[in-house]
Amino acid sequence: MEEIATDRNPVEAAIEQRAKLFRGLADPSRLAILDALRTGPLVVHEIVERTGLTQPNVSNHLRCLSDCGLVESARDGRFVRYKVSSPQIMDLLREADALLNVVAEDIKACRNYRVDGSDGPPRRA
Amino acid sequence: MEEIATDRNPVEAAIEQRAKLFRGLADPSRLAILDALRTGPLVVHEIVERTGLTQPNVSNHLRCLSDCGLVESARDGRFVRYKVSSPQIMDLLREADALLNVVAEDIKACRNYRVDGSDGPPRRA
DNA sequence: CCTCCATATCATTCCTCGCTGATATGTTAT
DNA sequence: ATAACATATCAGCGAGGAATGATATGGAGG
Q1: What residues make up the domain containing B48?
Q2: Which of A28, A39, A123, B32 gets the most CB atoms within 10 Å of its CB?
Q3: Domain count of chain B?
Q4: Residues whose CB is below 7 A of strand C
Q5: Global pTM value
Q6: pLDDT in tens, chain B (125 residues)
Q7: Which CATH number goes with the domain that contains A53?
């Protein structure tokens, strides 16, 4: 049947939700933090050590991830321990890796967005 | 013992790949296009109609998606027909929706990024 | 109480990226 | 060849957001 998006509003809402989620994940620092948390909970300075990011930077991204419900925090003495809030997150990351097994070459060659220190001139979008 | 990421380079590379992939998906227009292609291949002007985006805009995003290997194009007369290149992409989107079932509330409330016409003042990151 | 350590917040700066409008390429038909 | 349609490209504008450096909060200990 013709689904010509007569009632696009709920669809648009769902799309914006997805976009927001993906944007939350579309940052090397945040992905590095999630990767560090893969093996278990960590306190902030441990995350700083493992990722090599600055402390305020980690703190900002942790707040970002926390606001999005992707990580949870708990005070432990003067430390704050963070952990991944839901196993679905790691499922999503695994699915992303599965897709990358297919499109990794193109993604690497894609010059539309720059991530960190990608070399080469960006494409004028 | 301390796993202070002595050989972080390959890990970093993988993280940047993921970031690039997620950034490719972190845009409402591109997600709308992928959503339009969910039911099957479409030519460009059909995508324009269904998404309500302008033609150059759709064309730009299609190039973007194509560069990343997420869609494939084939000439059909004077039209160009686009389709999702791999079923893993839809798998990833489904996994994202599964995660959204858990964190949708937080994502919606998250003011760190704005998507399209999100109301309210953005948080100063 | 004052200091040290761990973490969070703030303001500024810079750069990336998406949208728009005009135009170019390309294909088919008359 | 020319017209009409479909798609792609380009330059420029504008805003969002990430990193930085300094600073604020907050708990533990001497």
Answers
A1: 14-85
A2: B32
A3: 1
A4: A 43-45, 48, 55-56, 59-60, 62-63, 73, 78-80, 112-115, 122, 125; B 23, 26-29, 53-54, 56-57, 60-61, 64, 75, 77-78, 124-125
A5: 0.91
A6: 554 444 457 889 999 999 999 999 999 999 999 999 999 999 999 999 999 999 999 999 999 999 999 999 999 999 999 999 999 999 999 999 999 999 999 999 888 888 886 766 677 65
A7: 1.10.10.10
